[in-house]
Amino acid sequence: MEINDKILVTGAKGQLGSAVVRNLKNKGYHNVIAVDYQELDLYDHAAVEAFFEKERPDYVFFYAAFIGGIEFKKEHPAEIFTKNMQMTLNVFENARKFGVRKLLNTATALVYPNDAPVPTPESCISQVKPAGPDAPYTLVKFSGKMLCDFYRSQYGCRFFTVIPCNFYGPNAPFEGNKAGVVPSLIRKMHEAKTNGSREIEVWGTGNAGRDFLAVDDVADACVFLMESYDGVGPVNIGSGKEITIKEAAEIIRTVTGFEGKLVFDASKPEGRQHMLLDTSLLNGLGWHPSHSFAESVKVAYDWYWSEKLKP
Questions:
Q1: Residue 139: phi, psi to the nearest 5?
Q2: Count of other CB atoms within 10 angstroms of residue 295
């Protein structure tokens, strides 16, 4: 990418999209088009076509998604698949039609099967086995990865896919059924500390392991890859380390200052037992994360606290 190139970021008010916008602007890119659902309805093919025809972006970061937490996935399976597929088809086809030079598509670590080796290399994407509440999102994200390959094969489009680990930070949902595990625990502990509660509930046994990474690190990796990567296959983005939910909760307790008890409810779902990405490809290209888990939790908590204080 050149400094004057026109760069489109969809889902720009979400946590990853907004982090990429910050990263691009901090690096001097000044022709950034940041759109969210309020500016552009990605479900509407005609609207997307008119937008691409008018703006003619050179590069596209595709982050728009319709998704939430475990309960949300259980309640909205058809919507999750159809809405995400509509957005993917509309953006990809118009990126091709109007000559986008490069498109970064975002998948999810859920495309890897439960029995994949740990850490999981990109090659395991061919073994995808959609199942349970994650199935609709897993399937549509796998389809997006395959579409990148098809567009590259048939049209020569430089479309590629990144697969980030669990990320969190500013602009993440902290409330309701769209909140991920780290934001949820931050909110729970903050509220418990504020209300004087002596304990909080943590879903699951606490033994499940996760690959957690600051959203600003994920964004930096995405911009790095858009600038320097021209490969065909997907690229994992992760910390290279797995920590258990129990270990994460203890660190979050320290950061938030909550002194009460953590009660692990094994009757509640906790998802896969292990999720750690093999980041050899990304690290070999020269990129490494800049923030530890504790540091990134502090950034997320400070943002959440500042948002709570707003009138």
A1: -65, -45
A2: 12
- Provide the annotated active-site residues: 137
Residues, the chain: 311
Cβ contacts of 147 within 8 Å, gap of 6 or more = 88, 89, 92, 105, 159
Measured CA to CA in angstroms, residue 256 lies from 166, 200, 253, 292 at distances of 20, 13, 5, 16
Confidence category of residue 265, pLDDT binned at 50, 70, 90: very high
Helices (H), the chain: 15-26, 45-55, 70-75, 77-97, 135-155, 181-195, 215-228, 245-256, 280-284, 293-309
307 compared with 11, residue with greater pLDDT: 11
pLDDT in tens, 184-213: 999 999 999 999 999 999 989 999 899 999
The amino acid at 198: R
pLDDT at 232: 87
